[in-house]
Please model this.
Amino acid sequence: MRKSRANDRQVKSRLKVVREDTSSPVPSSSYQIFIWKVAIPIAVMAVAAGLCYKGYNETRVNTTFSNEKLIEVSRLDKHDYYWGSYRPGVYFGMKTREPFSLVTGLMWYFPNTLQGDGRGLRHWCTQEDKLERYGWTKHDGKNFGIQEIVDNKVLLKTSFIKNTHGLNGGDWTAKINVTALKPSIKNKKISLLFYTAIEDKTNGNINPVVDHLSDALTGVEGETKELGYFNLNFNIKSASSVDQSYLITSAPNLSVLKETVMQNLRLVAEKDNTNMGRIVLAGEELRQKNGKMLIPNFIVTQVTSELPMELEVRFERNSIVSHKEKLYGENYDKALSTYEKQFDERFEKTFKLKEKGYKNDEIKFAQLAFSNMIGGIGYFYGSAQVQSVHTQDPVPYWKAPLYSAVPSRSFFPRGFLWDEGFHGLLLSSWDLDIEMDIISHWFDLMNVEGWIPREMILGEEALAKVPEEFVTQVNTNANPPTFFITLQYILEHRHGELLSKHLHLLDKLYPRLQTWFEWYNVTQKGELPSTYRWRGRNKQTNKELNPKTLTSGLDDYPRASHPTNNERHIDLRCWMALASKVMATLADILQKPSNKYENTFEYLSDNRLLNELHWSPKTNTYADFGLHTDKVRLQRPNQASRQVKVNQDKIRVVLEEPKNKFVDSSFGYVSLFPFILCIVDPNSYQLQKILQDLEKPEFLWTNYGLRSLSKSSPVYMQYNTEHDPPYWRGPIWMNLNYLTVAALHHYSKINGPYKAEAKRLYTELRKNLIKNVIHQYKTTGYIWENYGDTHGEGRGSHPFTGWTSLTVLLMAELY
Model:
């Protein structure tokens, strides 16, 4: 302190001398002007440069990687795949692979149970309808599809066939056949509604064709830029009298078609003047309150009849198809029978289930599981909502199409990045053209940074199914890069076809794969070399028992209790090891430099380094590392006054100071990743220990598959918030069970001391999984999102014919 004050006196003394020294030269005014002339432009340029850099950073999140689109190389847009059942979110509908397509669809209801609030009117796939079952029984992704829907003991069989002669996919015919499954309801009435709609941005029009004698809608005609002139014709077959009505109106958008129908239903007296009324559509509703006329964009025909009944819909263009080739009546039935036979033959050739000794009912299940994945492919168009650290608010992504399968038609009828990598395993087994086009669409959604949004919500229909808080995608957040397992599978099983038909596309895809790999390698890296960390965990929340890691795909699976930058996530490290291995293989095929990727793979698969960073000596298991304590619980916050009763959510209470350590108290799927992705040395103690732990019932083993989290974990089957039930904390999930079975198959085929043990576990786990999924389908009518670890019961959303359909590959032993 004394020294500081002495210095102050010296400084003040010097300042006094300076002030009193009047002999110092004063800069001239011309010199000062010169200084200002130089300084001002520099300052302006600095500000401008700063603003430009800020703007540059703001626009990177929604700047496309390249204007050259991969889908222009894959060229699946026209002819054979142009039309399809590309509306997975509705029970039945057809559309084209165009941004603003003509769409058609089906609704139905039973007149005696329809509610004024819309309950009872079926349109969108939804679990609330409580249908006994529904789904495609056969679908080849290209030419035809057959679906069965069971609603209140009534079977609706929907089918379609395409005739791809001519331009833009040619013509198609659809049939809706309705029959009673119980003799006691054979006279039950049903109302079928088939509609045609266009969006406001569709360059075209639709108009009704009405028979004025019967006042019935017999068809729809129209014209669009892409289709040219077209018409739809309706043909009805029923053993009893038929009541018809129609609606011609303008709907606000495709997401409110059901609501538009409900607003335009009318109750009128029966024709025979009985007391029972009948429900009809309102007819033409185009005049607004101000007297102006709307242009129709939504036309519906309603057919009401007792069972059985059949509605045939024919879409035709001005094509060169002869009358003999047209798909209606007997021609349709014969063509459908031929396609079914061809499907059965191709299915056996692809998956060889009959050869493996499966029974007919088991093969039918496999056909259904596969058909629902390929029949669940949708075509979407729109602009996602994204955000980066440089944008104050969410901004729109560029408008783009997406051709993709979906996890669940009822609950997740849109594209998910990490799900799609698993879907590609099954789809590429059947049709490599389809899978390569799906990959092309996803990588056309990559921005200039190398980021792909993990969930694509495109178009009004998709947006209407997503809560607002989940719409925005943040560009720091990743998702497992599962397209690398798709590409690895294709290289293993479809290598010849890939190189003969898709080499040029692969060459165009490769730079995007490089950028995608680098984005992960840079943005998701950990604090230490060779470590990685999922971004997106909430450090501030006090509502979660263990802050979720949605970006990992494993949501509420327990990680370090207190998110920090020094976390090490073993699953992400293993994903990067796999990615580098696939990149090295692709580089060799395309004759590109591969050393970088080979070296990265060797580095990340080095078991000595892996064990040093992720092997817990306490539990002898692989684990994450981070700031962690198990001593946490959810409890209601203390209220200041007992007089005031406020229903507050439970908050997390930490009962012990967290420490940096291995998160080894929770053994589960994440612990298995070095094994699952075949990184563990086949001669190592680590492999022996994993195989031993794998079949312990107190850990993961059940008679129905591997549970996601050990029963010994502190958060096993625990709610993560007061309102969020356990998700990846016990239930059995097919995607990681499939990878585990594939890993057991791998280790059972290579030399090592644990080869026989891997083979034994492979046989048992594969059998358990297949048996339970088929049993639950037969019991409930559905394939499920996940399965209970105590009784094997189906849980979560249903039907879930995304990665649960990998059961087909387990049956076929394709890995």
Notes: The chain has 20 helices and 34 strands. Confidence is low (pLDDT under 50) at residues 1-23.
